[in-house]
Structures are given as C-alpha cells and as structure tokens.
Amino acid sequence: MRLVLVALAGLVGCGDSNSDCARAVRHVFDLTTKVGKPGAEEQAVIDQIARQTTRACEREGLSAAQRDCILAAKALDDRQFLMCPALVAKKPSWIIAPIGHPEVLDEIDQIQAEPVDVDQLDKK
Fold it and tell me: 72-78, long-range: CB within 8 Å, 24+ apart, which pairs?
C-alpha cells in the first residue's frame, strides 16, 4: 500500500460551499478519509479543517486546470494526479503530496517491500 501524506493547512478567510475550492478540498478530504465513518466529534474537526482549507485555497486561487486535475484524481498517489501540469506549475500549499515527484512513491514502495525481521525489533 502506498502512503501519501496529505496535510491540509488551515488559514483564515471566507468560502462558498459550492466554489471550485470547496469542491476540490472536499474531493481531497474524501480521498483521504475513506476508512470508516468518523464519529460526530471527529467529523466536526474534519469539517472545520475543510472550511479553513477552503479559505486557504480561495486566498491562493485555484485555476480551472488545477481544479480539474484534483477532481479527476482517483487517489492521491495516482501518478497522473502527481504529474498534472497545472499542479506541477503551481502546487497548492494545502496539498502536501509529492506533486511533480512520483519517484517518492517508488521509494515508499521499496521501503514497504523490504522484509522486516521481527526478532531484530525486540533487540533494538
């Protein structure tokens, strides 16, 4: 399994829930929160971070090409997403992923494929 860390920075501003930024941010959140349904408190935190991230996106601006790349992504470790020309040219600060550097995925795959000697873990 590939691991891509996506950190969503929360900044101040206002946002329309139907804006391109809101749609893009929600899509990224949907891609990163696929594991189970969060509890009420966790959902409240997710919603707050999504609102703040949308504000950050709106402050920075999001081109139609960037929006289209984000909305087309099936996974955040998708090479097509990571090499999208619009994102490589101007990477949104609120997406912490190896945009323009898919070789990071190869390194992660290699690390995850290395066998772990469980007996050696106890000795460290």
Answer: 73/27, 73/28, 73/31, 75/31, 76/4, 76/6, 76/28, 76/31, 76/32, 77/2, 77/3, 77/4, 77/105
